[in-house]
Structures are given as C-alpha cells and as structure tokens.
Design brief:
Helix content is 81%, strand content 0%. With 165 residues, it is mostly helical. The chain has a domain of 68 residues.
Length: 165
C-alpha cells in the first residue's frame, strides 16, 4: 500500500496536468475564434471605410471642379462686364475697337511692333486707361512720330494724336 500512494499521486497529478492542458488549449482556441471574428469585423469595417473614402474623394473632386468652374464663370462674367465698361469708356472718348484693331494689325504687318508687344499693349489698355497707340508710346514700343504716321495712314480721326500737329 505504501507503493500505491505515490502511484495515486502520480496518476492524480497526471490527470490534473492533462485537464489543465486541455483547459488552456480550449481557452486558446476560444480566444483564437474570437480574434478571427474581430479580424473579419475589422476587415469589413476597413473595406466599408475605404469605399466611403473613395466616394468622398470623388465628391470632393466634383465639388472642386464645380468651384473652379463657378469661379471661372464669375471671372468671365466680371471680365465681360469690365470689357463692356472699357468699351463704353473708349466709345465715350471716341475710340472704337475697330480703330484699335486696324492700328494693331497695321503695326504688326509693318514690323513696328511684335505680336508679343501687341498682346501686352492690348492687356495694358484698360489698366492704363489709354488708347492703343498711347499705350504703345508709353511702353516704348514706338515713338510719337511713328504713332502720328499710323494715325495719318489709317485715317484714325478719334485718336488724341489726330489733333496733334
């Protein structure tokens, strides 16, 4: 019987060890299943958020495009209004767009100014509130005598230079 106690203790400790091992393994399996479920939920949420981000990015681009187009529409409308006002100012001064165009084309064709200089002068007309020839003189593209000759050649009677003798 004395030899039976150690054997019983060994058997009981072996059973206890197996039971503890199984409990640990079952706990780990349960935790792994829980983690797998959490992982699927997180992946689903990630995919949902990724799709939502793409939608929001697309909406943002559309809104930015609309904003740019609206800004350009406003700019174009403002530009048109400014051009109309400038045209009215020039008409009130007796300077027609036709005279400006004729002078511009003539001076380019005769090599008196370059196309780049012509564009710069056209752009500066409203800022300087001057006619085309006046801007060209001010910017140093032509001298006063050249401007007088252009007025005389084209018969521009509404230019301030047409009264200069």
């Amino acid at each position: 019987m004395d030899s039976l106690y150690p054997l019983l203790i060994f058997g009981a400790s072996l059973l206890l060890t197996v039971w503890a091992y199984r409990a640990i393994v079952n706990g780990m399996r349960t935790r792994l299943r829980e983690l797998a479920v959490e992982e699927r939920e997180i992946e689903e949420r990630y995919l949902h958020l990724s799709r939502r981000k793409k939608q929001l990015d697309k909406e943002l681009k559309e809104l930015e495009t609309q904003a740019i187009l609206t800004q350009k529409d406003i700019s174009a409308a403002n530009y048109a209004m400014e051009m109309e006002e400038i045209g009215q100012d020039r008409k009130s001064q007796g300077i027609s767009d036709e005279d400006t165009k004729r002078a511009s084309e003539y001076m380019i064709s005769k090599g008196l100014i370059t196309i780049d200089q012509n564009e710069r002068a056209m752009n500066k007309m409203e800022a300087m509130n001057m006619d085309f020839l006046g801007v060209c003189i001010t910017l140093g593209y032509i001298d006063l005598e050249t401007a007088k000759n252009v007025v005389k050649t084209l018969g521009i009677h509404h230019s301030t230079l047409s009264v200069v003798k």
